[in-house]
Amino acid sequence: MPGTLANESHVDVLIIGAGPAGLMCANGLSLAGVNVRIVDQRPDKVPAGQADGIQPRTIEVLQSYGLADRLLREGNQLHMAAFYNPGPSGGITRTGRAPDVTAASARYPFETTLHQGAIESIFLDSMKSRGLFVERPVAPVALEWSQDENQLQDPTSYPVTVALKNLSDETQEPRLERVHAKFVVGADGAHSWVRKTLGFAMEGEQTEFVWGVVDTIPDTDFPDIRNRCAIHSPNGSCMVIPREGDMVRLYIQLTDSQIIEAGRLNKGKINCDQLLQVARKSLKPFRIEFPNPIDWWTLYIIGQRVASKFSMHERIFIAGDACHTHSPKAGQGMNASMNDTHNLIWKLTQVLRGWSHISLLKTYEFERRKYAQDLIAFDKKFSALFSTKAQTDEDPDGVTHEQFLEAFQTFGGFTSGIGIHYAPSDIVNPEGQSAASKLIVGQRLPPQILLRAADCRPFEIQDLIPADTRFKILIFAGNTNDTQQQKRLFTLADQLGGDGGILIKLAGAAYGSVFDIISVSNSSKEDVNYTDLPAIFRTHWSKVFTDAQEVAGLRGGMAYKSYGISKDGAVVIVRPDGYIGKVTGIENVNSINQYFSSFMIMQSAMTLHDS
Amino acid sequence: MPGTLANESHVDVLIIGAGPAGLMCANGLSLAGVNVRIVDQRPDKVPAGQADGIQPRTIEVLQSYGLADRLLREGNQLHMAAFYNPGPSGGITRTGRAPDVTAASARYPFETTLHQGAIESIFLDSMKSRGLFVERPVAPVALEWSQDENQLQDPTSYPVTVALKNLSDETQEPRLERVHAKFVVGADGAHSWVRKTLGFAMEGEQTEFVWGVVDTIPDTDFPDIRNRCAIHSPNGSCMVIPREGDMVRLYIQLTDSQIIEAGRLNKGKINCDQLLQVARKSLKPFRIEFPNPIDWWTLYIIGQRVASKFSMHERIFIAGDACHTHSPKAGQGMNASMNDTHNLIWKLTQVLRGWSHISLLKTYEFERRKYAQDLIAFDKKFSALFSTKAQTDEDPDGVTHEQFLEAFQTFGGFTSGIGIHYAPSDIVNPEGQSAASKLIVGQRLPPQILLRAADCRPFEIQDLIPADTRFKILIFAGNTNDTQQQKRLFTLADQLGGDGGILIKLAGAAYGSVFDIISVSNSSKEDVNYTDLPAIFRTHWSKVFTDAQEVAGLRGGMAYKSYGISKDGAVVIVRPDGYIGKVTGIENVNSINQYFSSFMIMQSAMTLHDS
After folding, report:
1. Angle at A270 between CA A267 and CA A274, to 5 degrees
2. What is the per-residue pLDDT for A64?
3. Alpha carbon distance A294, A410 (integer Å)
4. What SS3 state is found at B88?
5. According to a count of CB atoms within 10 Å of the terminal CB, is the N or C end of chain A lower?
6. CATH number of this structure's domain A204-304+388-415
């Protein structure tokens, strides 16, 4: 390797790049107690601008790490979208308003906007509380990996070596550090050095659509300045995205084709004042002025590409913008990035702890590359719609308000992130699905309010399944006041946690660190006794819930119905990332065994081997 | 005054006693920027035990100071009450469960339990953020006040002098400080030195009921250990109050009349083990054991008394246990105390700022002494019910489950604090009430979800009226898309905030520091434009709301209906403590003028006088 005075070190996971994907990864791994380092070549985090939209599903994910409260406190919320089209007298007129989010099951039925630097701070502060900091400015200069199959299959080996250079002492002879890592995550952006070094190609194309973006606090009489607006004006298309405080982001379509020269943007052709002038014209007859400083502005061409591979030997991964680029129109960028590493965190942790086979990591590319491809397909339709002219008398082929609104709402499951559906694999097993006929294996567990049996306090079920790297085994226990049902539950309890039970075989006596068991009765709140359940289903009084309506209030009592679970009950296995992995009846214990055995390492077998 | 080396100092408000009443007062005054000091003779805050129940209304009040989040995070919630009575086979059996809180309009329909020390910490940390600390151990040793009527009527004078002694240097010659105060608040507990020095008598009596209290973590198969339980057992009455963590408080009735000797408790007659033995017997056939340390325990006789006066010349006030003692059975103690000073904070601030006449302070005793008397009357009925034996075959005169449950629910408005209703006075003016026929002038503004007009984000109306010492003027504007209604609104805006408008006369051009104006349209969320309102009703885009249902969700859209406001609109004036002071139609501006003029000082008159 180049350079002198190379220091050697070892780490379980080295993350390259401290944007949203890298920080999500570093925070999640450190929360799980994994030995992790994160480096970034930039001297500081993003000060302004960049990505800013957090989708409903991403808020749920952040909540599963205990980070949503701060996001919700600091961010702006988009509940309503307004649609403007050419009016009869030349300017624009409001054609209608519609919900900004159309995903019925969203726990947070709105988008949140907050500048990328503030979102990064949420992760940075969480990491800081555990002593983890981003090392910067530090860049990778070399990346090597073993081809030895035995080494690659051994999760305790360090088959990857990265040479890191500290950029803060440019004038001196560069000091290099050789880091030996079990795993490397390249979250180093659209121009990813890791991706290029691995030789993965970006597949896809670039459009001809050019947009300008400006963040500022405007002065206006436009009544929808705090709603998301899609404006099809005779003077060009425009999008309004209100931000935290009084800030507003304007996306402004540029029709001057001279801005693109030989497939690249010529930024010298237009300045920010000209962008604002276009915005002024687009909003007429409303008045919009820009008396305040411009916080950030840029130009971009929409490019839609996905990397050919996301992983090298399940030892080096790429995530975030390094894997996929697309238009910012539907606000997907930062969301897709954070959800990439959310998918990876628990899998790396399971393998590093020796709980799961290293092959589990194959599901990262399998799940996230397919998602990225779907995202690009969606983005093509969606951004074309935004970039097309509105229908007018002169332009009868333009898009109508009805077409636009229909598309906007059809795409709701996608734009919200709620509809993400992972295809069948070892960790997504749709067999036996009928026991909870309205849950979709491969999708995230939808929200429901349950009452805690011991004290009738309401809880959101999503808050019971935090991203703590444990699989959650939800025992929908049926009527726990019924003696026959109690017998079935005691049998299940014995098969799971009794002598030679499945959980004991899988994870040993301390299986509580691998699995979290939560029980949900459907007895009435007046009759339920948490003391009626088998001991392993109530390791603490707070682990038993009932599906009943609040003591004072209207929420709750819909879990069995909306999940499609009968009075016989069901077992629902939720992956550590909140996605449903398996559903089965409470008498079908073998299928639980088969599910976990397909990717987990039997601890009882290991003990046998060790002795 | 006694002692040597007396230092002299001046302060606007001196608070004596740093329990819940004193800390609420100190925190509220410091939040308002008032020059305040607080002293306490104890060397540290309460470590365990004592009061622990926070009622629904008190949670609303804490929320108005921004303090409820932490309470809710740290505290335990009581949603359900369970009732046990003698069963057929000798032990107890559950007769039923019922909501713990029966106040329909409660925003937080549950009680919260948390030990007094943790509640005090919430105030202490809030005060600390503004540099205010409790001076301790510091005791008052002398209290003098001026009898000069001119001085008493001048809000800028210091008519009270308190000699303070620092108890931390007992061995030395006592160092005294002579503090000259504009106002003194004695929040120094049931044995109040301030009250005794003022010569105010405690009026009322003591009962013969003796109870023991124990805080510990029990080991039990009793299924309602996390609910509030009223247990009428053949072996004596018992109450279960679950607390934070796994802690439980048990109230145990003692029937051994020898514990009272000459009207005083003889604590030597019973120890904690004997108390626990009574609890074990009362809960049979359920098992309850006490393997963990006892956090706190005590014995008490129920005494029910109210001080003859709460104020000396509106310059020295007493608050909290210094004014009223009663049984802890309905968990009122700490709540009544904090609400005493919540009532006083804004009045002191208004007078100190020169906004209101000093006579405003008369309403403190007027409102809070009547409340204390009502509390005692309620407590007599309620605690007698708890101390009476259950009806059994041997004891046919005992109280039945039905009688008990009916009383429990009838008292809901009182036990929850939601029903507090201040009688008419300068600041509670029920004339014109019909414009909002279902609001009750003198009660707190009931919760409602509104949508913010500019972005359809839902807000709880109570969060729009924080305890920031400003009067809130709620303009229920009707249909703001209607041109006729707009005209009426522009007229109102002119009469309030135009040249020579009422608010200008009352408070000058910067009336926004005295009054906060919030507008509530009832246009649909699809049509409402915040830009349609007069400028003074939308000093920022975030000040306009509409009464509509959430974009995604079922809350909202009920404010006009549940407040009894017609499409013509109404003006609702909410006092700085959240209680409704006045309701009127939007064309009846004179009545707004009359309301404020009855206790506020016209700033335009002052300016005239100054010039």
Report:
1. 150
2. 98
3. 35
4. coil
5. C
6. 3.30.9.10
Question: Which CATH superfamily, name and number, covers B4-72+114-202+305-378?
Answer: FAD/NAD(P)-binding domain (3.50.50.60)
Q: Quote the CA–CA distance of B17 and B186 in Å, as a whole number.
A: 7
ipTM over 0.95 threshold? no
Expressed in angstroms, the distance from the first to the final Cα of chain A is 42
Q: Where in chain A is CATH 3.40.30.20?
A: 433-610
CB contact under 8 Å between B455 and A99, yes or no, is no
Where do the CATH 3.50.50.60 domains begin and end in chain A? 4-75+114-203+306-378
Give the tokens for residue B387.
């101390």
Question: Which chain B residues are Cβ-neighbours of A526 within 8 angstroms?
Answer: 96-97
Task: Quote the CA–CA distance of B575 and B471 in Å, as a whole number.
Answer: 5
Cα–Cα nearest to B158, from B35, B39, B320, B7: B35
Terminal Cα distance for chain B, rounded? 43
- Quote the tokens at residue B35: 């020059």
Type of residue numbered A472: K
Identify all chain A residues contacting B101, using CB atoms and an 8 Å cutoff. 552
Q: Specify which residues A428 forms β-bridges with.
A: A425
**Distance between CA atoms of B469 and B360, rounded to whole angstroms?**
14
Active site residue A52: yes
Length of chain A: 611
B220's enclosing H/E stretch is strand B219-220
CATH 3.40.30.20 corresponds to the domain A433-610 = yes
B4, burial (CB in 10 Å: exposed 0-12, middle 13-18, buried 19+): exposed
Find the residue in B nearest to A220 (Cα).
Answer: B531
Record the tokens describing residue B354, joined without a space.
């020169």
| CATH 3.30.9.10 domain locations along chain B | 204-304+384-413
Per-residue model confidence as pLDDT tens digits over A318-373: 999 999 987 666 567 789 999 999 999 999 999 999 999 999 999 999 999 999 99
Domain B204-304+384-413 class in CATH: alpha beta
Name beta bridge partners: B192: none
Average pLDDT value for chain A: 91
Here the contacts of A257-264 (C-beta below 8 Å, separation 24 or greater) are A257/A208, A259/A210, A259/A299, A260/A208, A260/A210, A260/A301, A263/A206
Every domain of chain B with CATH number 3.50.50.60 lies at 4-72+114-202+305-378
Q: Which amino acid is at A370?
A: K
Residue among A79, A451, A550 whose CB faces B457 most closely: A79
Give burial (CB, 10 Å; 0-12/13-18/19+) of B272.
Answer: middle
Which site among B455, B527, B531, B532 would you substitute to test the A interface, given the most A Cβ atoms closer than 10 Å to its Cβ?
B455
**Mutate which of A80, A283, A521, A530 to test chain B, going by most B C-beta atoms within 10 A?**
A80
Amino acid at A601: I
Number of other residues whose CB lies within 10 A of the CB of residue A243 = 21
Give the total residue count for chain B.
611
Residue the block writes with tokens 């952006």: A189
Q: What is the DSSP string of A460-504?
A: EGGGGS-SSSPEEEEEEEE-TT-HHHHHHHHHHHHHHHSTT-HHH
At B339-378, the pLDDT tens digits run 999 999 999 999 999 999 999 999 999 999 999 998 888 8
Amino acid present at B360: L
Give bridge partners of residue B242 from the DSSP assignment.
B248
pTM: 0.93
Summarised one tens digit per residue, pLDDT across range A370-390 is 999 988 888 787 777 766 776
Show which residues on chain A lie within 8 Å of chain B, measured between beta carbons: 76-80, 96-97, 99-101, 104, 106, 109-110, 221-223, 225-227, 242, 246, 451-452, 454-458, 525-526, 529-532, 541, 550-554
